[in-house]
Amino acid sequence: MGILINKSENIFSLQSKNTSYVFGVDSEGLLRNLYWGSKIQDIEDFDMPILTEVSTNDPVYEITREEYPVYGSLRYKEHCLKVTFSDKSRELVYKYSGYDINDDELIIKLKDSYYDFNINLHYKVYEQYDLIERYVSIKNNSNDIIEIEKIHSGQFHIPYEGLNFSNVHGHWGAEQQRFIQKVNYGKIVIENRRGISTHNHNPYFILDKDATETTGEVFFGALKLSGNFSGIIEQTQYGETLVQMGINSHDFLMELKPKEEFVTPAIIAGYSNSGFEIMTHNLHNFAKDNILRKGLRPVLYNSWEATEFKVSCDEQIKLAEKAKEIGAELFVVDDGWFGERHGIDNGLGDWYVNRDKFPDGLDPLIKKVKDMDMMFGIWVEPEMVNPLSQLYKEHPEWIYHFETRESDTSRGQYVLNVTKKEVKEFIYNMLDNLLSTYDIDYIKWDANRPMSQTDIEKDIWYKHIEAIYDIVRELKIKHPNVLFEACASGGGRIDYGILGIFDDFWTSDNTDAYDRLFIQDSYSYIYPIKAMRAWVTDCPNFLSKRVIPMKFRYHSAMMGTLGVGCNILKFNEDEIKLSQELIKEYKEIRHIIQEGDFYRIENTSKNNYSIYQYNKDGESLLFVFLPQSLIGHRGTNIKLRGLENNSKYIIRINGEELIKSGDYLMNRGLEIKLSGDYASDIIKINKI
Ligand code: DGJ
Predict the structure, then answer these.
(1) Mean pLDDT, the chain, as a whole number?
(2) What transmembrane ranges does the database entry give (predicted)?
(3) 197 lines ligand 1 (CB under 6 A)
(4) Quick check: CB of 379 below 6 Å from ligand 1?
(5) Atom of ligand 1 at shortest distance to CA of 334?
(6) Alpha-carbon distance 472 to 268, whole Å?
(7) How far apart are CA 267 and CA 269, in angstroms?
C-alpha cells in the first residue's frame, strides 16, 4: 500500500519505491508539508512542528510549508487558489475536513469556513514508477457563482536553497533547448500565454542539487496540460524553494456555477537521489506503460518537405511507391490536398478534396498505398480557418474575435472558437466523415498559429485545449485504430497532457540531423522516445542549409520513431540502397529504441562525441555521433549503463565481435574512435 496514515496525528505519507512524500494537518487545520525525499518507512517518526513567527512582519502563514496555499489572510507568497465569492469577498479560509481513500488515491478534503466551497487535494501513488500524481478538484456547493481567478494544481516544497532549475527555451525550428539556471532569491516564472504553443518553454520543472546523470538529488514534476500553463519557482526568505504549476492565471477567469465542480490538470512528480537518469527512466516507464498508446510506431514517410503545397495524386502515388521501396510502413500526405490550398492563404476550413490535384478523389492514392500494404495518413489543421475560405464566408462568427477590432491573422489564418458547440461539432463531423469515407489510419493534426482575441470569456484559453482533447477522445471511440499525431508548427504541443490524447508527436520542424541531436537530448529528459518523431530530410537542410551525410541523418533520426521526409523521387541508387538498409536495421532494433531504457552517456573525450544507449531485456544499442572531429582527433571511452554485472555480453563493432562482462563494460568501458566529420555508428550489444 503506497499510502500510510497516522490517524492520531493526522499525518499522511505517500510511499513509492524509493521515495516518501509526507504532509499533515496542524492544530489550526492547515495542511503542511513535512518531507519529500528518500524513503522513510516509519510514519511515526514524523510530527508536526510548532510554528513560531520570525517577527510580526513575518507572519506564520509565510513560514508555514502549506501544501496548497490559498489567497487570503497574512499570506503574501504565491498562492495556488484565488477566488471571488458573490459578495465580492476574496479571502479563502480553508479547514481540513477529513480524507478519503479510493484505491491508490488519497483525497484530502478542505472546506471553506464560511462559504459552501470545497477544495479536494488528490494524490495518487505510482509505487513501482516511484512517482506521485497531484491534482485538485473544487466544488461550488452554494447557490451563487464563484469566480476562480487562479488555480494551480499543486505546490511542492524543497528544503534547499541554491538549487539548479532546468527547463527548455526556444522558438519555431529551435524548440527544446535545455537551459540550467541557479535559483536565487526571487522568482523564476516559466509560462505559455499563446494557447497553443510549447515552443518557448515546457510545462515541467526539474530542480537539482548539483546533480549529474547518476548522482545527486533531483526533484521534478510535469504538468498534464497543453494550453496556457505557468510554473513558478521561488526561493523564499525562509530557507526553502517552492514550486507550483498549473493553468496560467494570465487573462484567466473562470465562473464556477452553483453545484459545479472543476478538476485541474495533474502534475506527475518524483524525486531521485541519484541523478537525472532515474528521473528519465521513471517518467519514460510511466508514460510508456500508463499514458501512451501501446505498440511500436511505424516507419513513416511524409511528403511535406518534398512537395510542400504542390501535391498531386500522380506524384503522391510515385512518392508512395518509392516510400514502399525503401521500407516505409505509413505514407502521410501533408498539407495541400484540400480546398483551394495552394499556399498558406486559403483552404483551411474547406475540407473537401481538391479535384484539380486529385481528379478522382483520394481513393486512387489510398488504394495504391493499401495495395502496397502500407498505412495511409493525412494532414489536417482543424482548429483554423483562412479568411478566404468558404467556411469563413459562411461563418465569420466562428473565429475568436472582438466585434470592435480587426481580427488578427497569423500565417494567414484565424483560430476557430472550438469552445462553441457548433464549431466543435463541425470539427468532429468533418474528421468523422473523413475517417468514415476513406480508409485512413493516421491523422496528422497541425496547429500553426498562437491564439489571440479570445472572446469575452476569459477561461477560453483553457477550454480551447479541453475541446481539442474531447474531439480526439470522441474520434478515437468511433475510430479506435486510427493513430493521431500532434503537431503544432513542429514541437508546439509536447507535454504530458497531449501524450495521453494523441499517439505520435512531431518534435520539431527543424530536421537538421545535427541540431536534432541537441533537441532530442533535451527532449529525452522528460519525454519518452516513443513520443519523439524524427525524420530524415534532404540536404542542404531547408533551415540550417547544412549538408550532412545520409548515414548520419538516418542515425540521428533512428534515435526516435523514424520517419523520412526527403524527396525520395530524387534519390539515386546509392541513396535508395542505404535507405533500405538503414530502415531494415531500424525495424530490427526499434523495439529496443522505442520501448527500452534510454541513457545519456558521458563523453570522456575532448572530441565532440554524443553518445546514447538503449537497453531492453538483454539487448543494448549504443548510438555514437561525432559531428565534427577536433584537433587531436581523439577517441572516447564509453562506460555503458544498466547491464548485469556478472553477465557476458557480445559486442558487434567494426565487423568484429568482442565478449566482455557487464562489469567490464560499465567500469572499464569500450574505447571507440570515429573519424572525420559527421561520423556515426550504432553498436549492438547482446547478453549471452
Ligand atoms: C507545420 C508542420 O510542422 C509541418 O510538418 C507541416 O505539416 C506544415 N505545418 C504544413 O503546413
Answers:
(1) 97
(2) none
(3) no
(4) yes
(5) 7
(6) 22
(7) 6
Using a 6 Å cutoff on CB, does residue 490 contact ligand 1? yes
Q: Which residue has the cell 483551394?
A: 340
List 637's β-bridge partners, or say none: 671
* Catalytic position from the list 503, 509, 512, 538: 509
Rounded to whole angstroms, the Cα distance separating 658 from 671 reads 12
Q: Report whether 176 contacts 199 (CB < 8 A).
A: no
Burial of 39 (0-12, 13-18, 19+ CB in 10 A): middle
User: Length of the chain in residues, anyone?
Assistant: 688
Sheet holding 300-302, edge to edge: 504-505, 483-486, 442-445, 375-380, 330-333, 300-302, 561-564, 533-536
Q: How far is the CA of 247 from the centre of ligand 1 (A)?
A: 27
DSSP letters, 583-601, are: HHHHHHHHHHHHHSEEEEE
User: Would you say 301 and 568 are in contact if contact means Cβ atoms under 8 Å apart?
Assistant: yes
Tell me the CA–centroid distance for residue 396 and ligand 1, in Å: 25
Helix (H, G, I), strand (E, B) or coil at 274: strand
Residue 655: pLDDT band with limits 50, 70, 90: confident
In this prediction, residue 197 carries a pLDDT of 76
Mutation test of ligand 1: which of 379, 411, 504, 505 has the most ligand atoms closer than 8 Å to its C-beta? 379
Say which residues have a Cβ less than 8 Å from residue 196's Cβ, sequence separation at least 6.
227, 415, 447, 449, 450, 451, 488, 492, 493
> Among this protein's residues, is 446 annotated catalytic?
yes
Torsion angles phi and psi, residue 664, rounded to 5: -65, -50
Q: What pLDDT is stored for residue 551 in this prediction? A: 98
Q: Which of 304, 337, 413, 511 to mutate to test the pocket of ligand 1 (most atoms within 8 A of CB)?
A: 304
Give residue 1's pLDDT: 65
Average pLDDT over residues 97-121: 96
Cell of 388: 478566404
Of 443, 446, 511, 519, which is best to mutate to test ligand 1, by the most ligand atoms within 8 angstroms of its C-beta? Answer: 446
- Cα 334 to middle of ligand 1, angstroms: 7
pLDDT band at 21 (very low <50, low <70, confident <90, very high): very high
State the cell numbers at 35: 518531507
Q: Whose CA is nearest to atom 10 of ligand 1?
A: 335
- 148: burial class by Cβ within 10 Å (0-12, 13-18, 19+)? buried
Please write the tens of the pLDDT for every residue from 156-195.
999 999 999 999 999 999 999 999 999 999 999 999 999 9
With helix as H, strand as E and coil as C, how does 137-206 read?
Answer: EEEECCCCCEEEEEEEEEEEEECCCCCEEEEEECCCCCCCEEEEEECCEEEEEEECCCCCCCCCCCCEEE
Domains and CATH numbers, the chain: 3-290 (2.70.98.60), 300-403+422-595 (3.20.20.70), 599-687 (2.60.40.1180)
Bridge partners of 619, per DSSP, are 616, 686
If you measure from the C-alpha of residue 551 to the centroid of ligand 1, how many angstroms do you get, rounded to a whole number? 25
Contact 337 CB / ligand 1 (< 6 Å)? no
Which residue is closest in CA terms to ligand 1's atom 1?
489
Any residues with CB less than 8 A from the CB of 138 and at least 6 apart, and which?
81, 117, 118, 119, 120, 148, 151, 256, 261, 262
Where do we find the cell 565534427? Answer: 628
Of all atoms in ligand 1, which is nearest to the CA of residue 490?
3
Q: What is the mean pLDDT of residues 43-69?
A: 91
Atom number of ligand 1 nearest to Cα 488 = 3
Q: Which of 26, 112, 335, 446 is catalytic?
A: 446
Dump the DSSP string for 351-386: -SB-TTT-TT-SHHHHHHHHHTT-EEEEEE-TTEE-
Say how far residue 356 (Cα) sits from the centre of its chain: 38
In the block, residue with C-alpha cell 459552501: 116
Which residue owns the Cα nearest ligand 1 atom 11?
335
